[in-house]
Amino acid sequence: MKKHAKYFVAFSLLLTAFSALGQQNFTLYTMPYVQQRIQSNPALVPKAKIHIGLPLISSIYMSYGNSGFKYSDLVFKGSDDSLHLDFENMISKLKKKNYISGSFQLDLLTFGMMLKDQHYVNLNVSERFLGRARYPKDFFEFAWYGNYPTIGETLNFNFGLDVVHYREFGIGYAHVTDESKWKIGGKFKYINAIGGFETEKFDILLHTDPDDVFTFTASGDIEINVAGFEEREVEFIDDNGDTQTDTIFAPSFGNYPFSFYKNHGMGIDIGAEYNVMDKLHVNASIIDMGFIRWKDKVHNFKSVTPGKEFKYRGLPLNEYLKDGDSTFYDGMDALTDSLAKTFEVAVTNEPYTTKLSSQYHLGVTYDLSSDQQVGGHFYWHFFDGRWFPGASLYYDKEFGDWCTIAVSYTLYNRSWSNIGLGARINGGPVQFYIVSDNIIAPFFPEDTKYSNLRVGINITLGNPNKKKEKAEAPRIE
Amino acid sequence: MKPIPKLLFSFLFVVLVLGSCLKKEIFELDKIAKTKYTPEVAVPLVYTSLTLEDVIANANPDIIDVDNDGFITLVYDGRLISLMAKDALTFTAQSFNYDIQPGIDIPIGLPNGDTVSYSDLQTINFDAGTGNQLDSIVYKSADFNITVSSSFEADIDLTISIPSAKLGGSSFSQMMNIAPTSTESATFDMSGYTFDLTNGGTTTNEFSIYYKAVLTGTGMPVSASDQLSVSGTFDNLEFDKVFGQIDISGMVPDLDTVMISLFNLATGVGEFSLVSPSITINITNSFGIPIDASFSKLEGINTISGITHDITNNPDVPNPLPISSPTISQMGQSLTQSFTLANQGIVDLINDKPKFFVYQVDANSGVGGTGQNFVLDTSKIEIDTHIELPLHGTAKVFSMQDTIKLQLNFDGLEEFMLRIRIRNGFPIKVKTQMYFMDDLYNITDSVIPDNKVLMDEADIGSDGKAVGYTETILDIEFDPAKLSNARKAKQILLIGEASTYKDATENVKIYTDYSIEIKAGMVAKISTDF
Do A439 and B15 make contact, defined as CB atoms within 8 angstroms? Predict the structure, then answer.
């Protein structure tokens, strides 16, 4: 059993390390020298006139989050040097619905250029992998405490999994002038999606009736869409050492990463910044408004009788009393058949559409000086019928034109202990940057509910500060 | 690079790259200690909802009779006596001999080629058994075996005829050829022959055989000591019909006992009273013989209580028994007479649940009867009992008791509560108790708290029929102490008692639409490590 506990914790770790639908860039939002912040607001153009994102290494982004519990909520070290599991504490941290989320983005190519000091055009090709698993508190309470403490209540084991893997081809434009207080920008994205898994519905309800001698009532309403999966025959060695074949349902991405898929989509980013005063700026954006139409290797799993109730009152003695030939196994077979019918799903192959997980940003920045800024940033995204908000305070300082350091404090994912740090350094045109919204996480992963990391190398040309310095240098007459 | 950014950058690098590589003890999963798992689960265990109709549908339909209102009567059809003619009336082989001697019967010396004939009649007495004076008999099957031995030096043609034995209007006649000084045998099938045993209407149990012998000389002398010996047997006699005066009184069993299997079901029943039970006796007869019979003994015996109820002289029991016999014109028919016993003596008898009937029949038949009597091979007489027990009354079962060897295993259970809910539509109350016992049959604990009623009775209306149902919920707590006793128990003693409405003081009626719903569930606190 101890082995099972280990597996459970390992699984929890895996989930925790699982990379969130939507990207969070709280600290990056305040780093104007880094071109990648345009991914959060297309109006926030970088300071360099030209930037080139080197293939594969210009931006590697990963994030994870667990809105429910921290590893340390579950595992603690006892006085005897052993590790102990504290499920009661872990469950007490959970909300009705909890999410483990992760994302990964690899920019294959990015490019941006300022034209005539007011037209900023940019493009990108990015590989994005976004996922989120939903787990209900009801299930863990049921599993740990049993059903008796919640007797009379209807428990919903509404697990969910939403995963999307796609390639984004984006072209953006921003209009910036010194004369206007407004900066506006937008980006259009064509999406070629590789695979996806969408849980449209997954309501497994269980009720234990205290007034009817604990009769179980269960019902299921399931609707799941999957793309990029197909049935494949696989060989395996059985217990006798013989080679057998079996059919499994597995991902099938063809000649990845060189294939082009029939799953097409589009997305739009829009953003703006308004200079309220010389030193006070307000900005806002909406990222990833769009959809994906899934057509490639699509499977739809849908309940045949959604919401149909199945009641289990105990072993049906009637069968034995009425029919002397009935056996216990006949009773169990009948029970299994009824249960299977209740949760029976039909499989179809109809194309389906998923929305992109849109993100909303609202920020305010105040220039303490020409090289220091403070600001605040609000973030939301909408998923699973609810809003997921975040908020951040930040400060950044530029050390000449070659270095920027930013620090932030973020509230996100029901987590209150996120100290972020970002750094950018330019050695000539080569720009290296590294940013995280939770710098504590590597030291205290067990206490982390949310963290991310973005790192990359860009080529930047046309540093405006140099130009400015040149312009401001005293003339020798 | 300026010192502050350099420091910060280094810090950031360390934090993000190296920090993630730190190995912490809290992630050393091999150090996870066992965790105690103690969920409380409530589960339904068993469920059944049955009407009495459901139950009896699986029972023997021959013993249940339901009227249009669904009222139930238990019935039992048993047989006291069954007497088949082919078993009761049998005939032994009939043998005879006859000799022809030359010195007396034919001239001595017979030239070659000359013939001489001789004829004679032999009367045969048919042994029909004691008391039987038969006029005729029709054989279903019979063999006539005859052997003729000749010491004559002559060829002999011997014709054997039975004028009173006829088949299709023709008398039986067969000829045998016997060579000089030889023996010949023959068997003749007499199936279907009708034998007139009156010898011309003058007597009974008698018929004649006619012999005619024709001797042809061979030139050899016929001596005075030569003779022709005839030896015959009628055997394998099975009759089809027998006419005359036939006495079957000796064939009726004298004293016999039959089991009433219906009351096997009532083993262990304490008090039992039905308002209107009855016994109907049906007598079916196809013997063409007047039968004068009566019960000289008729008793019901409860072997458990040892009580005997003698109803021999009960006024409802007729003496003699009404037995009708078919006349010649009714030959082949069975005639039935019935009488029903339903008075208080019978009620007392039934309510004592007799497992056996003991009876003795005195019977006279055929003697002094007028007209021609007959018996067919299919004739029989049967005396059947039909017991009707309308389920209207009271019943009380005391102390049904059983001991079960059982080792209970409650591994992983810390404590539990068993809930039994019974919705009872029967006007019957059940109480039960279960005791744990050790190896020495010492009771160590009981299960049902305060000897509570397991199943309370439904109320009845003025007509004795149950109205609605009564719900009983029984919670049986197995706290750690009781659970410990249960684990140690080697035997379980089950004791139960049941009674109809108000402790069996009011009569109730049982209908097929009575129902019972039983549900059992359990709340258990599990304790295990993983």
Answer: yes
Percent of chain A past pLDDT 70, that is, above it, reads 89
In chain A, where the domains are located: 2-304+344-472
Residue numbers in chain A where pLDDT is lower than 70: 1-24, 319-331, 413, 463-477
| Cβ neighbours for B241, distance < 8 A, ≥ 6 positions apart | B136, B137, B138, B374, B375, B376, B377
Percentage, residues of chain B above pLDDT 70 = 89
Residue contact B27–A446, C-beta within 8 A: yes
3-state helix, strand, coil in chain B (%, to 5): 15, 55, 35
User: Hey, are the CB atoms on A146 and B44 less than 8 Å from each other?
Assistant: no
Of A82, A322, A436, the CB nearest to B54: A322
Structure tokens at A180: 């206007």
Give Dmax over CA atoms of chain B in angstroms.
174
Parallel/antiparallel/unpaired status of strands B194-196 and B154-167 = antiparallel
Residue burial A251-285, b: 16+ Cβ < 10 Å; e: rest: beeeeeeeeebebbbbbbbbbbbeeeeeeebebbb
Q: pLDDT, tens digit, for every residue of B279-298?
A: 899 999 999 988 888 888 88
Domain regions of chain B by residue span: 41-62+394-529, 72-87+248-390, 91-245
Q: What integer pLDDT is reported at residue A250 of this predicted model? A: 84
Q: Does A13 touch chain B if contact means CB atoms closer than 8 Å? A: yes
Which tokens in the block code for residue A449?
Answer: 């509910």
Cis preceding-peptide flag for A257 (omega within 30 of 0): yes
Residue-wise pLDDT tens digits, B62-83: 788 999 999 999 888 888 888 8
- Structure confidence at residue A471 (pLDDT): 47
Three-state DSSP at B407 gives: coil
B91-245: which CATH topology? Jelly Rolls (2.60.120)
Give residue-wise pLDDT tens across range A165-194. 999 999 999 999 878 899 999 999 999 999
Report the Cα–Cα distance between both ends of chain A, in Å, rounded. 86
Provide CB contacts within 8 A for A470, sequence distance 6+: none
Secondary-structure class of domain A2-304+344-472 per CATH: mainly beta
For B380, residues 6+ apart whose C-beta sits below 8 A from its C-beta are: B82, B83, B84, B85, B284, B285, B286, B287, B334
- Report yes or no: B7 at the A interface, CB cutoff 8 Å: no
Q: What is the ipTM of this complex?
A: 0.80
